[in-house]
Amino acid sequence: MTGMSVEPYREITFDKDGDGPAGQSAALAALARQGVTDLVLLAHGWNSSPSGATRLCSDFFAPFPGLFGPGVEAGYAGVIWPSMMFTDEPVPDYRALVTVLPEKEPVLGRLAELLALAPPHEAAFAEFGALLRELADVPGGAAGATGLAGSVPEFLVADPVAVCALFTEALGDDPGGDPGDGPDGEFGEFGEGLKRYWKGAREALRQATYYVMKRRAGRVGESGLGPLLGEVARTAPGLRVHLVGHSMGARLVAYALRGLPEGARPVASVTLLQGAFSHYAFTARLPHDPRRSGALRDLQRRVRGPVVACYSRHDTALGVMYPLASRLAGDSASLTALPGTGDPRWGAIGHDGVQGVPGTAARTVADVPREGVPGSGCVNVDTAEVVRSHSDICRPELARVVVSAARAGRP
Known about the structure:
By secondary structure, this protein is an alpha/beta fold. It folds into two domains: 9-86 and 215-408, Rossmann fold (3-Layer(aba) Sandwich); 94-208, no CATH class. The chain contains 13 helices and eight strands. Strand 7 (361-364), helix 12 (368-371) and strand 8 form a beta-alpha-beta unit.
């Protein structure tokens, strides 16, 4: 591919449901016949355009040539899927939203109008709440409908004024009054007391789009990438696949393990970079509820080598916004108090690594070149020394972590 930093390089594309063009698994299997022994496959998480994702792959892969050493012929691939940014910004860019949710353009257009106008009326907030539910494909139209709260985030089915007031307060922009308390009575002379809650409405939109992308990443991994890798294992059984994912892309590659056909073990290592999913995903027992397990319980055992989680305390997107999103998605009581970030139930794997899995090893990014990583199981690598923000992944130090994980699982 012209302009790509490495060769051979292939791109694998999926739509929002995990479907992709015919022949993609054959293209990867063909690399093995050309002499490739190890395939490093990167799933992006930030980019809202295919060209941006390709640039990320090129930048990330640039340090790799020469790192593997003798006996390894490396090939590279990018997983391109319709995603959008999960950034530190309080509201996603409208154009990025339309790019990844084109079927929702009329809904997004009206949401943008409401946010721009900020009408101080309860009816406008009611419309905003209904539009958020339509955006997220939440069935039913009435907030609080029976059975909905258990399957979708509470903020999508609760009273929209209360939701936006809560988010406004969480963002530190509420003087502490009740929703609607204005200077001239219950709702102000013309309802102006409600106007300030449109700041919280922006965060509600951000959380709704996060919920959509979270579902999509898991679906693409489990229904798209997992079965594709199973086909690669069938036709090129000697090819060692090393999965790498950033942000929501880390969720995608992790869920690909759940989508592998029974008995297929093509994945030789997994490296999760600032992963935007639960740090308890791989645990057999949740510390706060031992009757339940993580969504990816014990799936690290489907990997022939290690599952490496790179994390950084400097990642505010995962340290602050991810716990907020996770708590609102998983706790029906979350709307009775401000969503805090101190509760470990809602932590991200990209903020403090794998939690709740006995025997998880620990390294720093400086340790890895000297000590390597264990040949199997979960490994946490503290990358705070080099990773200063959520998107700060195009680093030679992280390339060395991926290569170390790839080496660790070799027979």
